[in-house]
Amino acid sequence: MLRPIRGTVASNHSESLHWLYTATFVSMLLLVPVFGWLVSKFRRGRFIPGIYLFFISNLIFFAYTFKGDATSDWVQYSFYVWVSVFNLFVVSIFWSFMADIFQPGQAQRLFGSIMAGGSMGAICGPLLTANWIETIGSGGVMTLAILCLLVATAFSITLGRFERQRHQYLPTPVIGGSIWEGAVHVFKSKYLLLICLLMLSHNLTSTFLYNGLAVLVDQNIIGFDERTRFFSYVDLIVQVLAFLLQFLITSRLVIHLGMPRTAILPPILLAAGFVLLGSSLGLVLFAAVQVAQRALNYGLVGPVKEMLFTVVERETKYKSKNFIDTVVYRGSDVTASWLFKGMMTAGLSISQVAWIYVPIMACWGIGAWHLGKAYTQLKSRMDSAAG
């Protein structure tokens, strides 16, 4: 429900997106040590619901202050940064929890279907926003999002109780350690650095498509509600395709093709799409390639990335994973956004920039292959130890 509103804010301020990405990255840097402190001091059953409730309190403020086209620029800027931070933190924490309670073999079978549950919500969300934005306004849409987040918080508490029951109600141990330990561990682990390379390559690609679409929407569509409706339908198509991938295809690909071959599929497919953009450009074609990229992200890249964390120790699943999902993720976004701004300022067309990104996808494919091999080795060790 919130993504189409963020997309409208992006198109309203497409000339300032590089600064919004920078502000988001700085916010991540400030929040990561706070998250590390929470993980070090509190049990899982406390810090997960607490973080959800914190973000709900923030959204109440935006629901009150958003007034469509009359919303002040600073409120729009703040909302864009907040949604970008909120989206990564909440999703990262959810998948840290999943990686903590499921074994690698279970993850290969189930993570696609679990992520399909998220896509079902993401299918309903854009439909609600597209149909109700004119009736209840952006504040009303945010109020509905608050109710959904309250339900999610209740389910996180219930799921934690099921997990404690499975372990005879033994208290979940506090992870402990220093607040910076997760970040330090990332730079000491070749496996985690390969995950960072995967994320960097993907984000360079996705940020170009996001910024490029914002520019084209700004040039071709007029009005806050019309732009929000356009982004709602884009989101809807993305989530339908992602759901089909997650529910029907992803787990079967990983099981039958193996992790290395599955991981290299997205860069190969997207490279073909970028060749098309370099040869011909228009709003519909550009939106179609972005839809394909996001569907592959949610339907294939996302589940694969979460499976990669099932073969590491518990502290890495929370601290290092959160650092990668937030600081590294948004850092690569900032890099990609400034690169896009620089190339546009230098006078390059969007079609010319598309050709520049084809070699990046070649690097993505090579890194993904090596990462898949490393995952397979770690999983074999875990299986041997369990046996």
Descriptive report:
86% of the residues lie in helices and 0% in strands. With 387 residues, it is mostly helical. Helix 8 (224-257) crosses helix 11. The termini are far apart. The chain contains 14 helices and no strands.
Give a quick rundown of the structure:
The chain is mainly α and 387 residues long. It has one domain: MFS general substrate transporter like domains (Growth Hormone, Chain: A). It is globular, with a radius of gyration of 20 Å.
Layout of strands and helices, then pairs:
Blueprint lengths: L2 H10 L4 H25 L2 H22 L7 H29 L2 H63 L14 H6 L3 H31 L3 H34 L1 H5 L1 H15 L3 H26 L5 H32 L4 H7 L1 H29 L1
Helix pairs in contact: 1-4, 1-7, 1-8, 2-4, 2-12, 3-4, 3-5, 4-12, 5-8, 5-11, 7-11, 7-12, 7-14, 8-11, 10-11, 10-13, 10-14
**Treating each run of at least 4 consecutive H or I residues as one helix, how many helices?**
14
> What percentage of residues falls in helices of 4 or more residues?
over 70%
CATH superfamily membership, which one? MFS general substrate transporter like domains
Estimate the mean pLDDT confidence. 82
Top CATH class: Mainly Alpha
Percentage of residues in DSSP E strands: under 5%
The CATH topology is: Growth Hormone, Chain: A
List keywords for this structure.
Growth Hormone, Chain: A; mainly alpha
